[in-house]
Write a structure and sequence with these properties.
It is a single chain. The chain is of the alpha+beta class. It has a domain of 282 residues: Cytochrome p450, CATH 1.10.630.10. Helices cover 51% and strands 8% of the residues. It is built from 20 helices and 10 strands. β6 and β7 form a beta hairpin. α12 packs across α14. The longest helix has 32 residues. It starts with a helix and ends with a strand. The structure holds protoporphyrin IX containing FE.
Length: 502
């Protein structure tokens, strides 16, 4: 009996080892370089343990294992193809989008998780396309203009908070303050909720978001297992979404009920409810069942909070940090903003949109620190990469290593230097297409790019018109949090000195 058991175990181990060996030779057989792997785990350990984050591993592939714009790696046993050549990136993200319209999805079996499974980020194929078409009108400049006052209200709260803090403390954690600004803005624009996190240290809303980004090894492992073996979610609930989902679900349900009873605010929730009503007017047909039910709308509201909170707060905080490190650029930006205020009396939607140097400073911030450091697509039908003999197979994962491309001296002279002039209108033509993509690219780019830029520009303008900014003693370097998902500073501590009126 013991002998049989040992023989079976040996057979199992050998089969697993052979299977792993076969899977992990995928790139070598296709002439694509890839870093050394561990049996069964591929490059999983390197990816998860990379400090401060996954982009450290991506940089290794980009610099050492890329030939003719292509490099390989393995998430567990799933092959991942790194695409770094800008022309190839354009081909994949834009021109041949119909082969690459999908991302890995992280659905959950839990019966209460429909609200998360239905989010735009998590949808693929025809469902994604229809949802995206229904949601796109909510992000036009006309709609954003109507939300401008909601954003400036929160920026005024940020200013009041920082003025108060500046009298009490020698420096302020601007990252935390910007987090309160973005959570208040998104809660207001996506849920119609006033969460007053500037007044209330213990505000519930901000405390409920971080668990969605918790990137401990166990959670990352769960994500990767779901990614590598998507069928598994049909049998086991791995619990990839945190318990906090119930809180947001309940808030969204209550708010939708209130909207149906009366008051409109012109925010994202109203716009999604309008889209739902417009969908009801289409005649039914078999292939186009309605998709915008209440659970799907709630899912988008939660998604906006989850994807919009830290990305935007990080952008504003790092833009403030880089202004502090570069006093001349700070002064030039302030002068541009003061000129707008002199002409228009205050910060206006058009003023913010037209400010060229403000735009250049934000773009340069996003070049150096793109909050989402890589883009991902999943191949939905076999694809021969033009100009090569490589065929990407259905199901293969594609990665675009943004962090590395944004800092490659081939495209960006002195890449580590903060130089907003690169993005001024007279120099923009020198930027090679697809070498600056903080919001992604092609039809599946960030749907809220204009909203995020509006928020970041209004907040940075408000801060710079109120304060002179310097880095705090002992905090001259930017410390990035260890995270597998997003680029996030641990804190951004700045001395904010209120400006005196001339
Ligand atoms: C500076 C802030 C932000 C940055 C840098 C950013 C970046 C990105 C990136 C890189 C993607 C993936 C694009 C691709 O795969 O090509 C994305 C997708 C997305 N973002 Fe943003 N984002 C920001 C703010 C926001 C905000 C505020 C919201 C919501 C209000 C939002 C909603 C979304 C959604 C819904 C998607 C999925 C789009 C789809 O799959 O069709 N983002 N974002």
């Amino acid at each position: 009996m013991v002998l049989i058991t040992l023989a079976l175990v040996a057979l199992l181990v050998t089969s697993l080892w052979l299977y792993s060996k076969h899977r992990l030779s995928y790139w070598a057989k296709r002439g694509i370089l890839s870093p050394p792997t561990l049996p069964l785990l591929g490059n999983f350990v390197d990816i998860v343990m990379g400090k401060p984050g996954r982009w450290t591993f991506d940089e290794k592939v980009y610099r050492n294992y890329t030939k003719e714009g292509l490099g390989g790696a393995y998430v567990l046993l799933s092959p991942v193809l790194y695409i770094s050549d800008p022309e190839m990136i354009k081909q994949i993200l834009v021109k041949d989008f119909d082969h690459f319209s999908d991302r890995q999805t992280f659905t959950s079996l839990h019966k209460n998780d429909r609200t998360l499974n239905e989010s735009l980020f998590n949808k693929n194929g025809e469902k994604w396309k229809r949802l995206r078409n229904l949601m796109t009108p909510a992000f036009t400049s006309g709609k954003l203009k109507n939300m401008f006052h909601l954003v400036t209200e929160k920026a005024d709260a940020l200013k009041a908070f920082c003025l108060k803090e500046a009298t009490k403390n020698s420096y302020i954690n601007v990252k935390k303050a910007c987090g309160r600004f973005t959570i208040d803005t998104i809660a207001s624009c996506a849920f119609g909720i006033e969460c007053n996190s500037f007044e209330d240290e213990d505000a519930v809303f901000p405390a409920k978001v971080p668990p969605f980004f918790a990137a401990g090894p166990l959670r990352v492992l769960k994500f990767m297992v779901v990614a590598a073996f998507p069928f598994i979610t049909g049998f086991i609930d791995l619990g990839v979404f945190p318990e906090e989902k119930f809180f947001f679900q309940q808030v969204a349900e209550e708010t939708i009920a209130a909207r149906r009873r009366g008051a409109k605010r012109g925010d994202f929730l109203d716009l999604l409810l309008e889209a739902q009503a417009s969908e009801k007017n289409f005649p039914d047909d078999q292939t186009k069942a309605k998709i915008l039910d209440d659970a799907t709308i709630i899912s988008q509201s939660i998604l906006f909070i989850v994807v919009g909170y830290d990305t935007t707060a990080t952008t504003i905080a790092i833009a403030s940090y880089l202004s502090s490190k570069n006093p001349e650029a700070q002064q030039r930006l302030r002068q541009e903003l003061q000129e707008i205020v002199r002409k228009e009396g205050t910060i206006t939607y058009q003023g913010v949109m037209d400010a060229k140097y403000l735009d250049a400073c934000i773009m340069e911030t996003l070049r150096l620190y793109p909050p989402a450091p890589n883009l991902e697509r999943v191949c939905s039908k076999d694809y021969k990469v033009p100009g090569t003999n490589i065929t990407v197979r259905k199901g293969d994962i594609i990665e675009v290593p943004l962090w590395s491309i944004h800092r490659d001296e081939k495209y960006w002279p002195e890449p580590e230097v903060y130089n907003p002039d690169r993005f001024m209108p007279e120099n923009k033509a020198d930027i090679e297409p697809c070498t600056h993509m903080p919001f992604g690219g092609g039809p599946r780019n960030c749907i809220a790019m204009r909203f995020a830029l509006l928020e970041a520009k209004v907040a940075l303008s408000t801060l710079l018109l109120t304060f002179d900014m310097k880095t705090a003693p002992g905090f001259h370097d930017l410390d990035l949090a260890n995270s597998s998902f997003l680029i996030m500073p641990t804190s951004v501590n700045l001395v904010l000195e209120p400006l005196t009126e001339d």
